[in-house]
Amino acid sequence: MKISESTVEMLSKQVNAEFYASYLYFSMSIWADRENLPGLAKWMELQAKEELEHAERLHKYITERGGSTILAPIDLPPGEFASALEVMEAAYEHELMVTDNFTRMTATALEEQDFATVSALRWFIDEQVEEEAQTSHWVDRLRLAGERKGALLMIDNQLAQRQEA
Ligand code: MG
């Protein structure tokens, strides 16, 4: 069964949101580089790459179902942040919003009895559990560090340990 136009529109909006997320994390990486936090910069760069893969995955699904992804302009993300903690808090907030998107999309797909889309969205629902857990973990660590520069540098070293998925 060919995918409905409304589902293509809904998933295309999420393709745009994934590109925006990538742009946001790329912006955070640029900021971290400027602030001499190479670990955070690397972590955010890998995160930005992952978001591009999410966009690609959604696009591939739309195509497989005989649809055609609709593109839209990508908003400009913020470029200035007060601290590494603020960066990670913004990342966590963003992931919560993304989870909300996928929850609403899954509910819509269920309503329309489009179970193939429900199944495709399940991967993202699972992925969001990890995204929330990770960003929330780093928010906790950075809160713990507070104003102590030594602790911040230690966390930056830990962030640098992240490997490409
Ligand atoms: Mg994503």
* Run of helices and strands: HHHHH
Tally the beta strands.
Answer: 0
Number of helices in the DSSP assignment: 5
Find the structural class using helix and strand composition. mainly alpha
Q: Please estimate the helix content.
A: over 70%
CATH superfamily: Ferritin, core subunit, four-helix bundle
| Shape assignment | elongated
What fraction strand? under 5%
CATH architecture: Up-down Bundle
> What is the C-level CATH assignment?
Mainly Alpha
Bound molecules: magnesium ion
Question: SSE layout and pairings?
Answer:
Layout: H1 5-34, H2 38-64, H3 84-111, H4 115-145, H5 149-159
Helix pairs in contact: 1-2, 1-3, 2-5, 3-4, 4-5
The protein binds magnesium ion.
What does this structure look like?
- This protein has 165 residues and is mostly helical.
- It has a single domain, classed as Ferritin, core subunit, four-helix bundle (Ferritin), CATH 1.20.1260.
- The protein has five helices and no strands.
- The chain has helices at 5-34, 38-64, 84-111, 115-145, 149-159.
- Helix 2 runs parallel beside helix 5 (149-159), helix 3 runs antiparallel to helix 4 and helix 4 (115-145) runs antiparallel to helix 5.
- The longest helix is centred in the last third of the chain and has 31 residues, at 115-145.
- The two termini are 33 Å apart.
- The model has no long low-confidence stretch (mean pLDDT 97).
Task: Provide a short characterization of the protein structure.
This protein is mainly α and 165 residues long. The protein has helices at 5-34, 38-64, 84-111, 115-145, 149-159.
